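If you are new to this repository, start here. Below is one unmodified record pulled from the training split, so you can see the exact layout before writing a loader.
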Amino acid sequence: MTIVPKNRHIDAATAIVGSPQRAKALLNGLACKPSDTYMFLANGRKTYTESLLLLQNVGRSTTFLATSPQRTEQVQPVSQLIKEGVEVALKSQTRLAQAIMGPQEPLLEEAFENAGFAPLSMLHSMESLLDGPIPNEISGANELDILPYCDLSEQELQKVLVSTYKGSLDCPGIHGIRPVEDIIAGHKDSPHYDDSFWFIAKLHKKLAGVLLLTPLPEVRCIDITYLGASPHARGKGVGNSLVRKAYEVAQDSQYKRISLAVDAQNTPAIHLYQRWNFRKIGQRFTMIKKLF
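And here is the target side for that same chain:
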């Protein structure tokens, strides 16, 4: 295993994403991050046969991106590289290691499983184009107030966020692994974080839901980073009201579309988004490993 020097990051990235063009795009995305928050590990010296990117996130999680094995005999060296990456992540006090891959990469999934990772979810990427008026026929919740996050306390955000995880079908395997403070810190680490795009819902004056939006001005898009309802508020139109709020914010900002990712097993949420004209545009598979 080799720690890849900066002048060879392009080679290591190419071994992961498959082409120099895509590797350049990956490195461009990393350029805005502090250099001590990511590293490449690789097998080989003159030529990198397999490589791994470790991306340390605020909130004590680390994202793993690895070379996808093309044949069975390549699984073991990729898996060993992932194990070495876990040891590196442990030194940074990472609580959670997470891996992202395509939906049909069984050998890469096997390599991560051999390194102790467990399947988390198949995520559907969905989007809705804002090419018409907001649908008025979809009813929301009665006596629901959707309030700006900046008008409320951090404790209220933590409380409602934790409540929305209870009984949720959205990536349930990850709930409880990290403190809510770490989760919020991770969301706030987005380069496009703007607290004016975060909202908390109260139903009959009681905390009932949360809507975290991320503006992506370079592509004229609003991303629904998280939407959740507390157990007592489910089935009462809170989800519809929060999606409508996302539409209103997007239109007020003159954005052209709304994007999101949803667990493929979260059928109620998928039906909610389909009602609002979201369509599936892609999918990716995720795995996790709890480190401590």
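Two things worth knowing about this chain: The chain has a mean pLDDT of 94. The helical segments are 9-17, 20-30, 75-91, 106-114, 154-165, 180-188, 238-252, 267-275.
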